Amino acid sequence: MPIRSLLAETSFDPEQTEMIAKAFDDAWTELQIAKDEPAMASLVRTALARRIIEMAHRPGVEVQKLRDDAIAYVKNNPLWPAP
Fold first, then answer.
1. 3 state DSSP class of 81
2. Threshold 0.85, pTM exceeds
3. Residue 62 and residue 50: Cα distance in Å, rounded?
4. Higher pLDDT, residue 26 or 40
5. Cβ of 43: how many Cβ atoms within 10 Å?
6. With pLDDT > 90 as the criterion, what percentage of the chain qualifies?
7. If you write DSSP's letter for every residue of 16-80 in order, what string do you get?
8. CA distances from 52 to 10, 37, 40, 62, 82 (A)
9. Does residue 15 sit in helix, strand or coil?
């Protein structure tokens, strides 16, 4: 589920939307899910998007905080593959 469709369900101004999209893109780039695992990639992308949008409603958030929180959230999820 693309982040833009999740954003359509909420109310953010254009600046917040750009911040959310940047945090998502940065988090996704850092996690680098293998392309041969489309099911896992889809789950991770959805989890990242939902977490970033959820946290973006809090006051005083910034791109780096959103990105770091979303990465930690995904990595602490039991679905994340063990190293």
1. coil
2. no
3. 16
4. 26
5. 16
6. 39
7. HHHHHHHHHHHHHHHH---TT-HHHHHHHHHHHHHHHHHHHTSTT--HHHHHHHHHHHHHTSTTS
8. 12, 22, 18, 11, 23
9. helix
